[in-house]
Design brief:
Cofactor (chain A): FAD
Number of helices of chain B: 13
CATH class of the largest domain in chain A: Mainly Alpha
Protein name (chain A): Alkylation response protein AidB-like acyl-CoA dehydrogenase
Shape of chain B: globular
Strand order of the largest sheet of chain A: 1-4-5-8
CATH architecture of the largest domain in chain B: Up-down Bundle
Order of helices and strands of chain A: HHHHHHEEEEEEEEHEEHHHH
Radius of gyration of chain B: 22 Å
Radius of gyration of chain A: 21 Å
CATH topology of the largest domain in chain A: Butyryl-CoA Dehydrogenase, subunit A, domain 3
GO molecular function, one term (chain A): acyl-CoA dehydrogenase activity
Keywords (chain A): FAD, Flavoprotein, Oxidoreductase
Bound molecules: flavin-adenine dinucleotide
Number of strands of chain A: 10
Helix content of chain B: 40-55%
Structural class of chain A: alpha+beta
CATH class of the largest domain in chain B: Mainly Alpha
Pfam families (chain A): Acyl-CoA_dh_1, Acyl-CoA_dh_M, Acyl-CoA_dh_N
Strand content of chain A: 15-25%
Strand content of chain B: 15-25%
Oligomer: heterodimer
Structural class of chain B: alpha+beta
Largest sheet of chain B: 4 strands, mixed
């Protein structure tokens, strides 16, 4: 039993850390966030060159063949740097679905493009009424010749503004919230009949609402088995929650470290505020929140690595912890910075915003607690 | 013990309702939301209150106040919040006004109070400095006497609405002798004076309400000194206790909770309304129970003040609990907004966006972090209670 990283994992972690250290200062990030696309195409190419875009993919498609631990070490570093480039949307979600559901041809077409940095993907699943319910799908794909016609709307699609390729969840059978009858389709984001409305989110990323009006899809746009996408989506979402938790942990660590530094250096009443026992205990509490989150993250990753165990319960627990601990840590970080914590100029609040967005992605703590309870008290 | 309303209180309540329905009209509401029009709109609204005689409920009648009873205050606040009517800008009416009528001389009262009542001057509060936040008495902005004027040098920070202000009331250092609280004076400074510079600070909700205010050899007539030189700390302390009672915000939190209920009836997960979700219900009722208690704590404090007591450490309790409740409501509102909680203001209307309150939830949550920091941070309030109430 050990919790050590392999040599390769340490190298991967260090390479991301070095990039952030050298090229992704908070000021540099701020400029990227303020740009039209909210991401840097140049950095994306660097990610490709350094092999990061290949990490979770199979070797036959030019991937690195990495597992959950590899993804975790990268995502944690991305969190520390609040990296804006759509790694999560393109590699983890879009790429994850391709890996799990794509046909050999689809994988051979798209994965090398992702790996080379030539594909920005998005997974369009949320609808205005669906909240966190993955099976709540009203968008329809109806048979048309050998293909389909897509109609409906997806909202707050991550990386929706920049994506060139989409995977869309649509209903091919069943009723609105049925798990059965959902299918995935892969299509060009510029296809005729797609109306894209982009906007910025508080963490800097660009999302979009996508309206599909009689979008014609060829038969080979279907990704995976018709009507049976729900289990695949759920699985990829569970894996994605773990990746997000790793990113969140990186952020929590930064918030704690920066707050600790600040309280050692900020003086009031003639002493560093970190010398007040009232604040010391608060920082001990945030430290423990961080450690507990890390433990549940490791627990979930170890379960995922085992492959023969159902990781759902561990992952729901992790997402609950991420909510409670994340809020705790970011609230305290802002509070202990006083007025400085309220400024846009400092990174503290930006970490807080990203943590909130992570929390909302695929369901907040209450949502996952209900699922945890359903598994525990069935 | 009795908290029922007398018939004249009921009549007052009806009058307040009718006034808001009439005077706080839709046109005004729209202008108050507008980024470039809100300053003028606020002034318009405050003039309507002035015409009605309600602009300064807490001021003594001899200075143009209404001298309401605690019950009337309670009714007014409840109705105001329920109608979604914004509170007045506090800096003139609730902060410097009371200092001027309590500690100022006759000339100052005649010069400043009517203009505050008529919203002719917009005021801001210049206390905090980069090195003096919780430890306010460590402030360094200097005022050196030179003939008939003080020469002011230094910088204030976190000054809310300095960019809109005609006047700033400042705590400045006039002496370095003795305890640091002893050499502080209370000075009124015209923002149009030569040497005053306002630098904007953007906050985490992407708004500009905060500023840094620099003073570079600013000459301030001695006539603008409140009370005695070096006694400013005493005046400021009296005001701080005042500021904290109004910070509890019970009525506004009640309205925010009601709004939350409405949103929870609209938000649906897997076909089930959030309002019917037991986890959501627990979180909502946890907050409401705290608020029910705070409402009565507030009334107890108000009643004791009306009976002649001074708002002391109790106001610290109101501030801590009031702001904790506000933040809990803001957090729950974020959760209700789901994926939409991160949306920044966009050109898309709510219909195209698909959501009503995501962006406002974000704004309230983010800016709401400030409430436990300003007006004396909650940690400082706990220190006050520990010392003044518990004798620790
Ligand atoms: C939105 C906003 C609006 C504001 N508007 C104004 C305004 O209009 N005019 C004005 O003058 N000021 C204003 N302020 C400033 C506000 O009053 C100060 O931010 C506040 O007093 C805290 O000071 P600080 O920011 O320097 O934090 P610090 O004093 O540095 O405090 C940092 C942290 O240490 C804690 N701490 C400090 N001392 C102790 C102690 N002894 N024991 C335990 N914990 C302690 C604090 O509680 C806080 O969590 C505003 C602030 C904000 C955020």
């Amino acid at each position: 039993m050990n919790f050590d990283f392999s040599e390769e994992q340490v190298m991967l972690r260090d390479s991301v850390a070095r990039f952030i250290q050298d090229d992704y200062s908070f000021d540099a990030r701020r400029k990227i966030a303020a740009s039209d696309t909210g991401m840097s195409a140049e950095h994306w190419q660097t990610f490709a060159e350094l092999g990061w875009l290949s990490v979770p993919f199979a070797e036959e498609h030019g991937g690195f063949g990495g597992g959950p631990v590899d993804v975790m070490v990268m995502m944690e570093e991305f969190g520390k740097g609040m990296v804006l480039e759509p790694y999560f949307a393109t590699v983890i979600l879009f790429g994850g679905l391709l890996q799990r559901a794509g046909s050999t041809e689809q994988q051979a077409t798209y994965i090398p493009r992702i790996v080379e940095g030539n594909c920005l993907g998005a997974f369009a699943f949320t609808e205005r009424q669906s909240r966190y319910e993955l099976a709540d799908v009203k968008t329809t794909a109806t048979p048309d010749g050998d293909g389909f016609v897509l109609n409906g709307e997806k909202v707050v699609v991550y990386n929706g503004a920049n994506a060139d390729t989409l995977i869309v969840a649509a209903r091919t059978g069943g009723e609105q919230c049925d798990e059965d009858g959902i299918s995935l389709f892969i299509l060009d984001a510029g296809a005729a009949g797609i109306d894209r409305m982009s906007y910025a989110l508080m963490d800097g990323q660009r999302a979009a609402n996508l309206v599909f009006k009689d979008v014609r899809l060829p038969a080979d746009a279907l990704l995976g088995e018709k009507d049976k996408a729900y289990p695949v989506m759920s699985w990829v979402v569970l894996e994605a929650c773990v990746a997000l938790a790793a990113e969140g942990l990186g952020i929590m660590g930064q918030l704690n470290t920066k707050t600790l530094e600040y309280t050692k250096q900020r003086e009031q009443f003639g002493v560093p505020i970190g010398s007040f026992q009232a604040l010391q205990h608060r920082m001990v509490d945030t430290f423990m929140s961080y450690e507990q989150t890390k433990s549940l993250l490791y627990r979930a990753v170890c379960t995922l690595e085992k492959e023969d165990e159902d990781p759902a319960r561990d992952i729901h627990a992790l997402k609950v912890m991420l909510d409670r601990a994340g809020r705790h840590v970011h609230s305290e970080a802002i509070q202990l910075h006083g007025g400085m914590g309220l400024t846009d100029e400092m990174d503290i609040a930006h970490y807080a915003k990203r943590l909130m967005m992570i929390n909302a992605t695929f369901g907040d703590g209450d949502h996952h607690q209900a699922q945890f309870n359903a598994l525990s008290f069935a | 013990m009795d908290t029922s309303f007398a018939p004249e209180d009921m009549a007052f309540r009806d009058e307040v309702r009718a006034f808001f329905a009439d005077a706080y009209d839709d046109e005004l509401r729209a202008r108050l939301q507008h980024p470039t029009e809100y300053r003028e709109a606020i002034i318009d609204w405050q003039r309507r209150l002035y015409d009605k005689g309600w602009i300064a409920p807490g001021w003594p009648k001899e200075y143009g106040g209404a001298e309401w009873t605690p019950t009337q205050n309670f009714i007014y606040e409840t109705e105001r919040a329920a109608a979604g009517v914004r509170d007045v800008i506090p800096f003139g009416l609730k902060m410097v006004g009371p200092v001027i009528y309590t500690f100022g001389n006759d000339e100052q009262k005649a010069r400043f109070l009517p203009r505050i009542l008529r919203s002719e001057d917009w005021w801001c509060q210049g206390y905090s400095e980069p090195g003096a936040g919780s430890d306010l008495a460590a402030l360094k902005t200097r005022a050196d006497l030179d003939g008939d004027a003080y020469v002011v040098n230094g910088a204030k920070i976190w000054t809310t609405y300095a960019q809109h202000s005609d006047w700033i009331f400042c705590l400045v250092r006039t002496s370095n002798e003795g305890k640091k609280q002893q050499g502080i004076s209370f000075l009124l400074i015209d923002m149009a004076s030569e040497g005053v510079k306002v630098n904007p600070i953007t906050t985490i909700d992407n708004h500009h309400s905060l500023n840094e205010v620099e003073f570079n050899n600013v000459r301030v007539p001695v006539a603008n000194l409140i009370g005695e030189q070096d006694k400013g700390w005493t005046y400021a302390k009296a005001l701080l206790a005042h500021e904290r009672t109004s910070i509890a915000g019970v009525a506004d939190s009640r309205r925010a909770l009601a709004e939350l209920r409405r949103f929870a009836e609209q938000e649906v997960n897997a076909g089930k309304r959030k309002i019917d979700d037991p986890l959501f219900q627990k979180r909502l009722s946890d907050i409401e129970i705290e608020l029910m208690a705070l409402e009565y704590t507030d009334l107890r404090v108000l009643a004791s003040v009306a009976a002649g007591g001074a708002p002391g450490a109790e106001s610290s309790l109101l501030k801590i609990k009031g702001t904790e409740i506000q933040q809990a409501i803001q957090g729950l509102r974020m959760d209700l907004a789901g994926y939409y909680q991160g949306v920044l203001p966009t050109d898309l209307d709510p219909q195209a966006l698909g959501h009503e309150f995501g962006s406002s939830a974000r704004q309230a949550y983010m800016y709401g972090r400030a409430a436990t920091i300003y007006g004396g941070s909650n940690e400082v309030q706990k220190n006050i209670i520990a010392k003044a109430v518990l004798g620790l």
